[in-house]
UniProtKB/TrEMBL annotation:
Name listed for the protein in its UniProt record: 3-oxoacyl-[acyl-carrier-protein] synthase 2
Matching SMART domains: PKS_KS
Species classification: Bacteria, Bacillati, Bacillota, Bacilli, Lactobacillales
Native organism: Lactococcus cremoris subsp. cremoris IBB477
One Pfam short name: ketoacyl-synt
Signal peptide: none
Active site: C164 (for beta-ketoacyl synthase activity)
Catalysed transformations (reactions): (9Z)-hexadecenoyl-[ACP] + malonyl-[ACP] + H(+) = 3-oxo-(11Z)-octadecenoyl-[ACP] + holo-[ACP] + CO2; a fatty acyl-[ACP] + malonyl-[ACP] + H(+) = a 3-oxoacyl-[ACP] + holo-[ACP] + CO2
Function summary: Involved in the type II fatty acid elongation cycle. Catalyzes the elongation of a wide range of acyl-ACP by the addition of two carbons from malonyl-ACP to an acyl acceptor. Can efficiently catalyze the conversion of palmitoleoyl-ACP (cis-hexadec-9-enoyl-ACP) to cis-vaccenoyl-ACP (cis-octadec-11-enoyl-ACP), an essential step in the thermal regulation of fatty acid composition.
Superkingdom of the source species: Bacteria
Annotated Gene Ontology cellular component terms: cytosol
């Protein structure tokens, strides 16, 4: 026997909003959060724009000491998780916290901590240069660790570190834990804060980032003039529960997660083959008990790079065809690496709730061979019953999540 798995809460920190309402309003309006880099002087990197979190409401959940004990990616994770918990209404009175788990993702962890401490060790030596808390601030599992500490989640606990697929992988893994009876509820998502000199320079020297200076033209997924991705940051968190558990405590059910596809290309370190993506889509649909024709909306990985979109568009076309609406919301909130799949999962759930397909912002002319139904110009009211959210990462990782509109049945 397996359990059906539903979503009862979500939280988000992003360049287009730090609350579900603000995030959705800007997503629906197609208002980009991309702008000039302010976290540091980026001139020497040759990159001028990023999708930075703005006006982070630190005081809502934190005190000054928390900023010394947590890197920014952990702060984002805890904030989004606490908002998601509040929305869900889960408490120790209605839930056994020994069966409340937490799986959070991060592609890099505390990268800025590594940069600062590496610089300091050169200047001051290993004894004086490296901060005592460097390791617990920087390691990627501390998003999970800090969320568990703040929420009291004592069940299944681990971190997903699969580059840009990590956020989706964490949600898929949490889904399976509940489906197969290892947990009643899970906190799942991803967090990233890598807009620092080391992060921007690393991706820039890999020629992965756009050098475009106009925020409105910097990230244009599937457009013939796309020139690289825009670094983002933030966190997305979902609260997943078994249907039985959610109904027993009278929870407000937002959507159902019905499938998860997870594969590897086993092809190239950074260039996708497309075959793994196709297989991941097929696996998600198979687990959902759905056919390709059932898919109404796809939140695409859509990084605004040629390497990704040439293969992703073919994968979507080959498996699903050209009926489903397709958009990449990265044009608005940037590419948040290990957090991006979780932020996009929030966007996909909101698309289901609002029956609206967000715009693929900035794109004006599809590249040749893009035989998919990309949402251009503005978002569209749409009858969305089944939606996919898909993300692919360096190392060949592919993750596809299938979400279904909740109808009460």
């Amino acid at each position: 026997m397996t359990n059906r798995v539903v979503i009862t809460g979500y939280g988000v920190v992003s360049a287009i909003g730090n609350s579900p309402e603000e995030f959705w309003n800007n997503l629906k309006a197609g208002k980009t959060g991309i702008g000039p880099i302010t976290h540091f002087d980026a001139e020497a990197t040759g990159i001028s724009v990023a999708a930075e979190v703005k006006e982070f409401p630190f005081d809502k959940y934190f005190q000054k000491k928390d900023a010394r004990r947590m890197d920014t990616f952990s702060l984002y994770a805890v904030y989004a998780a606490l908002d998601a918990m509040e929305m869900s209404g889960i408490t120790e009175e209605n839930t056994n916290f020994d069966r409340l788990g937490c799986i959070m993702a991060s592609g890099i962890g505390g990268l800025e901590q590594s940069q600062k401490n590496s610089q300091a060790i050169v200047a001051k030596g290993p004894r004086k240069g490296v901060a005592p808390l460097y390791v617990p601030l920087a390691i990627a599992n501390m998003a999970t660790g800090n969320v568990a500490l703040r929420t009291g989640a004592r069940g299944v606990s681990r971190a997903e570190v699969t580059a840009c697929a990590a956020g989706a992988n964490s949600i898929g893994s949490a889904f399976r834990e509940i489906k197969h009876g290892y947990a009643d509820a899970m906190i799942a998502g991803g967090a990233e804060a890598a807009i620092c000199e080391l992060g921007i320079a690393g991706f820039a020297n890999l020629t992965a980032l756009t050098k475009e200076t106009d925020p409105e033209k910097a990230c244009i997924p599937f457009d013939k003039n796309r020139s690289g991705f825009v670094m983002g940051e933030g966190s997305g968190v979902l609260i997943l529960e078994s249907l039985e558990h959610a109904q027993a405590r009278g929870a407000n059910i937002l959507a159902e997660i019905v499938g998860y596809g997870n594969t590897n290309d086993a092809f190239h370190m950074t260039t996708p083959s497309g075959v793994g993506a196709e297989n991941a889509i097929k696996l998600a649909l198979e687990e959902a008990g759905a056919s390709p024709a059932d898919v109404d909306y796809v939140n695409a990985h859509g990084t605004s790079t040629h390497a990704n979109e040439e293969t992703e568009s073919k994968a979507i076309h080959n498996v699903i065809g050209d009926k489903a609406y397709v958009s990449s919301t990265k044009a608005l909130h940037g590419h948040a690496l290990g957090a991006t799949g979780a932020i996009e999962a929030v966007a996909t759930v909101q698309a289901l709730l609002n029956q609206y397909a967000p715009v693929n912002a900035g794109t004006t002319e599809l590249d040749e061979g893009m035989t998919i139904n990309v949402v251009l110009g503005e978002g569209k009211p749409a009858d969305i019953n089944l939606a996919l959210s898909q993300d692919f990462g360096f190392g060949g990782h592919n993750a596809v999540l299938a979400f279904k509109k909740w109808t009460g049945e």
